[in-house]
From TrEMBL:
The keyword Hydrolase does not apply. Residues 1-29 form the signal peptide. This is SpoIID/LytB domain. It comes from Luteococcus japonicus LSP_Lj1. Keywords: Signal.
Amino acid sequence: MPIIPARLTTLVAAGALLSTILAAPSAQAADEPHPVVNGGFTLVGRGYGHGRGMSQWGSYQQATEGRGWQQIVAFYYPGANLQTRAASTIRVGTYGLTGATARVAAEAGLTVTDGAGQTIALPLADAGVPITSWEVSLPSQTGTATTATLWFRTATARKALRSTVSGKWTFTDTDGSLTAQNASGKNVATYLGRFTGHRSGSGITPVLATTLEDYTRQVVPWENYTNWPVQAQAAQSVAARSYGAWYIAHPRTSLYDICDTTSCQVFGGISKETSQTRDGVAASAGRVLTHNGAVVRSEFSASNGGQIAAGGVPYTSVAADPYEMRLPTSVTTWQGSVSAAKLQARWPQVGTVRRLVVTGRDGRGQCGGRVTALRLEGSLGTASITPSQLSPLVSGWKGNYFTIADGPDALSRDVSGDGRSELLHRDPNGHLMASDASSGTAFAAPRRIGSGWGGFTAVFAGPFTSDRIADLLALDTTGQLKLYPSRGAGWGTATVVGRGLTGVRTPSLAPGLAAGKPAVVAQRTSDGALLRWPVTGGVLAGSPSVVSAAGWAGNQYNLVFAVRDFSGDGIDDVIMRDVNGNLMMARATSTGTLKTPERIGTGWGGFRSIVGVGDMNADGRTDLVARNAAGETRLYPSAPTSPGRFGAPVPLAAALGILVA
């Protein structure tokens, strides 16, 4: 599940245009070292789950595009055939919901049968006192190894009705449904089927036996969103039914075929059923996937991140998933973090943690594919680790399709979702160009990733939507601000998120100037004031306000833009250039105001554009890129030991074009 394209680095500037393209996937060729930044590591991932077989979100997208369930399952399981399966029974171990107990709520029509076939109609009261529940448990006194006792409860007592040496009791109801409870008496599921408590050594194994069709009804609402289109529900039904049928032929234990948790597939009863889930099950009734005549173990996961993972079987696809790439990145991407201290506690032999290195990928998908191996490096040594060892330590982990961001600020200009900034610029013909970062201070030759961006007065990047991957915002000549949400390997449909942005210059995105929430800022041309538009509900909210700033010089500034933390105080800053060529910085406060500007450089008057590009050198602070009239471009990395100051400039390629802010 996680990750995306190759590394780009974003160059932003006023009056430019954007769109992004990502490098073609390639197999992992070299180690990817990542130093500790701000006490740990930030992971940027794609997908949710193992990524094998069907993507549930991809299925949803296909259904919304009008594809039928047969087409959906054929896309994800191209080597399988659809066949109709005869009616059969499946046994589900319900430990996940009920725990190690077989307990049901008392209700009319409830009967119980022991292992010898003797059936008892269960009463609703004991001597006039209402019975609340029935359960199968151990006898109160020592019996045989197969003795199981039938107990009932009232509001004040627990009593044994009788015992059997046959080893089990099975509850059924005349209406076919049962209300199962956990050991504390809480109702946890409404099941269709027969509920058995098996004596297993010193405990009870709870098993629900039901038809394969009723089993599918009780899985689909728990594996899909219940309001999704019927065709997506039908595709899920085929996958769930086939998965269950495979376990009938390959039972997990002698007492049950399959479990009820995500270790198998979630089985939760009928309480979440909707008309969509019922219609989906009915539309594909009895249909299962087979290969060479045998039903297949049809794996699926929530999202594959745009690349189906290898399943090691001949009937699933191992290909890019274009339907996933058309989904919002809010459902296909994730961000996680892990502290260096937590890694050191897990692998103390490495000493003080210094770097986390990706040493292997599967070669399928963006950035070399899913991570298969890593190395932790420290002051005393190294440790080879696997993604499965890393996963429980990472907050927000959703799978092994990820990259490691070189500092949180890299994400503020990461439009591809690969954990790095992208350097974007526009050439004189309106083409959007991208230069991939080849190291912390260098870029590869630019390549064209889009065209037709010449009509915008400004283009800038930043995390506008909820997924934290940077999006593109473009201001047209009428004052409309358009959002181009990042899809990692392209852009979503443009939407207008603001109007009336006329009489302004150098707009940029600045979360730190709106109490940590997204905001757009721009300089008013009439008086040089800094205006702020807070973002509410995904659009610019109302009229702009003037940002309060002590000592603000107004029209003495001919370039103004917001950057993520340059000063090292953890809050966004505003960079200005005055008419004398001085570069100034105004630190933001936690309340969204600006402190008195301070000079951070001189001799900047000859640059046509200056932009923040995120954290290129992995020191946790943003860096700047500047372009002069001749098209010569320089990277100004933040000084590692002097927040708010620069290290030595690094020449970049000539004629990069107008930078994107």
